[in-house]
Amino acid sequence: MARLIATLGTSPGGIFESYKNLIEGNYQGDNVEKVKIDEVYIIRTSDKAVEFAWKLVKAIFTCCGAKDVRVYDIPLSITDINSRQDFLTFKREVESKINNGDFVDITGGRKSMSVAAAMSARNRNAKIITTVVPQAEYNRVQNLIKQLEPREKEIEMAGEGKCQTIDICQLVSKSALTILLS
Amino acid sequence: MARLIATLGTSPGGIFESYKNLIEGNYQGDNVEKVKIDEVYIIRTSDKAVEFAWKLVKAIFTCCGAKDVRVYDIPLSITDINSRQDFLTFKREVESKINNGDFVDITGGRKSMSVAAAMSARNRNAKIITTVVPQAEYNRVQNLIKQLEPREKEIEMAGEGKCQTIDICQLVSKSALTILLS
Questions:
Q1: Which Gene3D superfamilies does the record associate with it (chains A, B) (predicted)?
Q2: What is the pLDDT confidence band of residue B51, given thresholds at 50, 70 and 90?
Q3: The domain spanning residue A99 has which CATH number?
Q4: Residue A85 is part of which domain span?
Q5: CB contact (8 A) between residue A181 and residue B107
Q6: Minimal Cα–Cα distance from B166 to chain A, Å?
Q7: pLDDT tens-digit profile of A100-143?
């Protein structure tokens, strides 16, 4: 069993797609095989927009066909990376969550978060992945997210398993490509 | 003498500020000191907007007070990172440019480029830096860049030393913070 550790920014973009592509063995890399993932850790700041993105991620994992996987929210006390101290705090937290053989998804969040996650993955002998989405598809999802903003309550309910009132799975991209970077 | 190796995206953002902050010893890190930099390498794709950003960087270095430094443009044949092959091409190129003790600026370009540069820096025993700009300041610079788009000819001339016709140094941010990440 492997774990997926992902940084999260203001868009849920890519984490569920990374998960799905890994378990289906549908990614670019050497020795591609289906990966059994039983835990997903989302590392994020406590910025308001990022908190909303986390609710979307939770709803997507709950409603869009993820099976036998637990998704953990790891909110840090910082709201952004504006100093060396913020960076070191973020890196220490990410690194403490990574085990040998885990998959670390660097797609979400600030660039310095991605770099912190990649450096930590290297230190822990974990694999580094990213998921890319064509620009037009990315724009489609961003527009949908804007429309969903006033419906936070329903999104929270979807995250609790009440998936009927909101079509959260539109946010999942079918053309996302996952790449094993290292 | 150290070199500064920087990834570049569609915005010139941060490279000149990184250079300036390093030579002035004005950055966050352990054992901060003034760094002597005599060469700057800009690694970029051959995307049209990125090419324009390169012209801005060249004009800024020419007109805004950089001294005794040579700036090299390293355009790659790829236009973006859309596959594992693109990533590996980019990483190989970055890594071939980095020497022990260099400073690698991961601020510009796609996240996967930043990660490629950071991983390469680690492999080569180089230092990793980033430069952050407050959001309002970032927006100011982005708006200015939009206004400069029709003036490509003048920007090219500024890059050749004819700095009088265009105030390119407005693009340089005074509130940019450079951080030594590793």
A1: Hypothetical protein VC1899 like domain (Restriction endonuclease-like)
A2: very high
A3: 3.40.50.11700
A4: 2-180
A5: no
A6: 31
A7: 999 999 999 999 999 999 999 999 999 999 999 998 999 999 99
The C-alpha of A124 sits at a distance from chain B's nearest C-alpha, in angstroms, of 14
Length of chain B: 182
What confidence category does residue A94 fall into, taking pLDDT thresholds of 50, 70 and 90? very high
Distances (CA, A) of B29 to A74, B22, B123, B130, B179: 27, 11, 20, 11, 6
Which residues in chain A are contacts of B83 at CB distance < 8 A? 28, 177, 179
ipTM above 0.90, yes or no: yes
Q: What is the pLDDT of residue B113?
A: 96
- Token pair for residue A118? 């990649």
SS3 readout for chain A? CEEEEEECCCCCCCHHHHHHHHHCCCCECCCCCCCCEEEEEEEECCCHHHHHHHHHHHHHHHHCCCCCCEEEEEECCCCCCCCHHHHHHHHHHHHHHCCCCCEEECCCCCHHHHHHHHHHHHHCCCEEEEEECCHHHHHHHHHHHHHHHHHHHHHHHHHCCCCCCCCHHHHCCCCCEEEECC
Shortest Cα–Cα distance, B154 to chain A (Å): 31
* Inter-chain residue contact A119 with B118, CB threshold 8 Å: yes
Cβ-Cβ contacts under 8 Å, A81 against chain B: 132
DSSP codes, B8-53: --SS-TTHHHHHHHHHTT-SBSSS-----EEEEEEEE---HHHHHH
Residues of B in contact with A30 (CB under 8 A): none
CB contact under 8 A, A181 and B84: yes
**Count of domains in chain B?**
1
